[in-house]
Amino acid sequence: MIALTGLAIVVMALLGQPLFLVLGAAALLLLYAGQHDFSGFTIAIMKLVGNPVLLAIPLFTFAGYMMAESKTPVRLVNLAKALVGWMPGGIALVALLSCAFFTAFTGASGVTIIALGGLLLPILVAEKYPEKFALGLITSSGSLGLLFPPSLPIILYGVVSGARIDSLFSAGVLPGIVLIAILGVYSAMVARRAGVKQDRFVPSELWLRLKEAKWELPLPVIVMGGIYGGVYTASQAAVVTVAYVFFVEVIVHKDIRLTRDLPRIMREAMVLIGGIIIILTSAIALTDVLILEEIPQAILNFMKQYITSRFMFLLVLNIFLLIVGCLMDIFSAIVVVVPLITAIALGDSGYNINPVHLGIIFLANLEIGYFTPPVGMNLFLSSFRFRKPVLELYRATAPFLLVYVIGLAVITYVEDLSLALVKEPGSMGAATVNDAIQQGESAATGASGSAPDDDLLKDLNLEGGEVNLDLEFEQALGEGAASPPPAAAPESATPAQEVQP
After folding, report:
1. pTM of the predicted model, to two decimals?
2. Nearest Cα residue to 497 out of 455, 441, 453, 443
3. Taking the domains of the chain in order of start, what are their residue ranges?
4. Judging by beta carbons within 10 Å of its beta carbon (0-12, 13-18, 19+), is residue 426 exposed, middle or buried?
5. At what angle do helices 390-413 and 310-327 cross, to 10 degrees?
6. b or e along 174-190 (b: 16 or more beta carbons within 10 Å of the residue's beta carbon)?
7. What is the pLDDT of residues 113-144, one digit of tens each?
8. Choice between 64 and 37, residue whose per-residue pLDDT is larger
9. 92-118, pLDDT tens digit by residue?
C-alpha cells in the first residue's frame, strides 16, 4: 500500500501536478509510514504562519511590481546611461546595473526581462552590439540582482534556513558586485571587438537624469539604512518600502492609476506570492518529517565515505545546485533543497562552511540556473518576449554561462568575499525567527519554570504561544526532534527532546 502510494506521488510529479500537492502528499505518506500523528503536519504549517519575517515577502514583491508597471525602468536606464554610458562597454553596463536594481526589488527574474527587455534590446542593437550578445546579456542578467538586498529569495532563504536575514543582506553585496564587474569586463571586450563607439560624458545630461530619478534613488538607502540603523526590522522595512513606492508612483509621478492599475498590479503580485507560500507550507512539513526520520544524516554519512575535503564538497555542491537551478524555479528550490543542504553542510560534517556563506553560494548557483540549458526559466521567458527560438538563446547565453561560472568559483572559494561586510555574530540586527524562537524557548522553559517575560517576547516579535511550536511538533510526532533544539536545553527535557536530528 505504502509503495503504491509512493509510486502514485512520483507519477503525479512526472505528470506536472502542482508542486504543493506532491510535497504535501509525500509528507503525509512519510508520517503514515513512520506511524506518526498527522497533527504534526498542521503544527509545521503553524510554525510558518507565525513567522514574523514572512510578512516582508508579499510587501517587497508588491513594491517591485508597482515599480515595474510604472516608468521607473525608463528613468533608471536613462540615469545609468548618463552615469556609465561613456565607459568602454558602457551601454552593456547600463543593462547590467538596471537589471540588477530591478531584480533586487522585484525578486522575480521574469519581471525584469518583461519590464526591461523591450527597452534595453533596441538600445544595445542600435549601439552596434551584436544581437546575439544583446540577447545573451539580457537573458542572463534577468537574475543578476538576486544577491542584492532586499531580494525576495534572500528573505525566503533566511526564513527556511534560519540564517540571519540582515547578515545575508550584507553578505550578498560584494559577491553581487564581483559578478557585475566580471560581466562588465567581458562586455567591454565584446564592445571593443565589435567597434562600438563610446559616448561622451555630459555633466548636464547626468544632472538632468538625476533630477528625473530623484525619487527612486533614495529607496535603497531608506530600506537598508533603516534596517542597519536599527530604525526598523526587515518586515517593517517592507511596509515602509510599499508606502514610499506607492507615494512616488501614484501620487508624485502619477504613473499608476489608483482605481484602474493598482488593483491589477496587486492581484498579479499576490498570485505569485500565494503560489510561493502554499508551496512553502507543504515543503516545511515535508522537511520536518525528513529530519525526524534522520534522512539528511544518512545522506551525510554516505557522503563522508567518498567526499573528505571541503574543496571537493563545494565542487559537488555547485554542480548539484546548477542542475537544480535549471530544473526548478528558485522559490521551489529554496523550500525543497535548502533544508537538506543545510542539514548536510552545517551538521557534524567537518566541512566547516559558514552558514551565511553557504546561503550566498546557494543563491549564486540558482541565479545561474535561471538561464542554464535545457530548461532554465529565463531562456523561455526571453524566447517569448523577443520571439526567438529557444535554441538560439542557448547559443546566445553560452558565453555568459562561462563568465558566471568563473564568478561562482570566486564566490565559492573566497569566503571572505561573502563575510567581509557581515556583522559580528553578537551584534544586534534584524534577527531571524529561528534565533527568536530559540531564545524564546529558553525564556519560556527555563529551569525556574516561570513564564516568559512579556518585554522579551515583544522584542523578539513573537506572539505568546509561538515559542512552543517546536516542542508541540515533537510531541505530536512522537520520538525525535523536528528541528534543532535550543543551544541550552532545559534540565527537565525529555530524552526525545534531547535527540539531535
Report:
1. 0.70
2. 441
3. 52-272, 433-498
4. exposed
5. 150
6. bbbebbbeebbebbbeb
7. 877 887 888 888 888 899 999 999 999 988 88
8. 64
9. 898 898 888 888 877 665 677 877 887
